[in-house]
Design a protein that fits this description.
Blueprint (H helix, E strand, L loop, with lengths): L3 E5 L4 H12 L3 E6 L7 H10 L4 E4 L5 H10 L2 E6 L6 H6 L1 H22 L3 E7 L22 H19 L4 E7 L1 E3 L18 H9 L6 E4 L11 E2 L1 E3 H17 L2 E7 L5 E2 H12 L5 E4 L8 E2 L4 H7 L7 H14 L6
Parallel strand pairs: 1-2, 1-4, 2-3, 4-5, 5-6, 6-11, 7-10, 8-13, 9-14
Antiparallel strand pairs: 9-12
Helix pairs in contact: 1-2, 1-8, 3-5, 5-6, 7-9, 7-11, 9-11
């Protein structure tokens, strides 16, 4: 059996950590990335960690001829689909851009996979597909009702994948609903370095701690939570990467479509995360309270039992580990990959 795995968006934050996990497990990843929100330096980081790098192809997932060329040149067995736009705030301002990029490029990928008879796919989805009014913690059967266009594009792709699996039982599809990925590889060679304004909390905290930002803006302190700030389920990016390996192995033995939450099952508030980051970094981390943003839900926490039972996967890193590894990356790379 071929062990070539096409990794779309493989130079990005979660993609690069998953490529490391793939190489260490004996797979041959092929990274397809247009580097619009990632850096070629992440590939160098992968090489430092693994002693060897992946095949790298620069291009767009929406380029059908490029995809067919990849599938005809390599005996690709499966695809990990990470690429896509991921800012909740930007998606609210430019929804059509998000539908065009996220849904459109996914359709191109699926058409090329079908033509090449590559029918094993792991899709990078999100906890934003859940209805924020659903009972916590979210299980894979919790009602879905995204409250922003970013989450709507993820759910739309999920629905397309359901339709595909329903009519062709040979497809093996894993949908991984991520909660909040943070941290970095313990080596500090790869980490999170968004080219645009970060939308996730942890990079903003660490950029403030390292002096790139004067202060950290907290959007809302009057939510119905114990300290008034949003609560999220943070998961170490290396735990997330291992989840993809577990899902790949599961799909080797199981046809059809399967959905798994990847989270810890433990919620941490904005204020709690800042407190832990201050302990780890020793930095003051000045903050300023701002009004709530539209599209932010008060609390989102996973029930990861299904992934633990079916994938034999469980998160290994604590919130302290997550902060320490993210800080190690940020301290070694104060300006990111640049």
């Amino acid at each position: 059996m071929s062990n070539y795995v096409l990794v779309t968006g493989g130079a990005g934050y979660i993609g690069s950590h998953s490529v490391v996990a793939l190489i260490e497990a004996g797979y041959n990843p092929i990274v397809l990335d247009n580097f619009s929100n990632s850096s070629k330096e992440s590939i160098s980081g992968i090489e430092k960690i693994c002693g060897a790098g992946p095949v790298v192809i620069e291009g767009d997932v929406g380029n059908s001829s490029l995809l067919m060329n990849i599938f005809s040149s390599y005996n690709v067995n499966s695809v990990l689909h990470f690429s896509g736009l991921k800012s909740v705030e930007e998606s609210t301002a430019e929804p059509l851009k998000y539908y065009s990029e996220n849904v459109g490029s996914s359709l191109s990928l699926l058409r090329a996979m079908q033509e090449a008879k590559v029918q094993k796919l792991i899709f990078s989805s999100s906890a934003t597909v859940y209805n924020p009014e659903s009972q916590l913690p979210y299980t894979e059967k919790s009602p879905t009702k995204p409250i922003n266009p970013y989450g709507q594009t993820k759910l739309c792709i999920e629905q397309i994948l359901h339709g595909l699996a329903d009519v062709n039982p040979k497809w093996r599809i894993g949908i991984l609903r991520y909660f909040n990925p943070v941290g970095a590889h313990p080596s500090g060679h790869i980490g999170e370095d968004p080219k645009q304004q970060p939308n996730n909390l942890m990079p903003l905290i660490m950029q403030t701690a390292v002096g790139r930002r004067e202060k950290l803006l907290i959007y809302g302190d009057d939510y119905d939570t114990p300290d008034g700030t949003c609560i999220r389920d943070y998961i170490h990016v290396s735990d997330l990467a291992r989840g993809h390996l577990s899902a790949l192995r599961y799909l080797d033995k199981h046809e059809g479509l399967h959905i798994w939450n990847l989270g810890t099952g433990k919620g941490t508030s904005v204020q709690e995360l800042i407190k832990k980051a201050r302990e780890v970094t020793g930095a003051e981390i000045k903050t300023e309270i701002r009004p709530k943003r539209s599209g932010d839900s008060p609390e989102a926490v996973a029930d990861p039992k299904k992934a633990k039972d079916e994938l034999l996967w469980h998160p290994e890193y604590s919130i302290g580990n997550m902060c320490a590894d993210h800080w190690n990356w940020q301290r070694q790379n104060p300006d990111g990959y640049q």
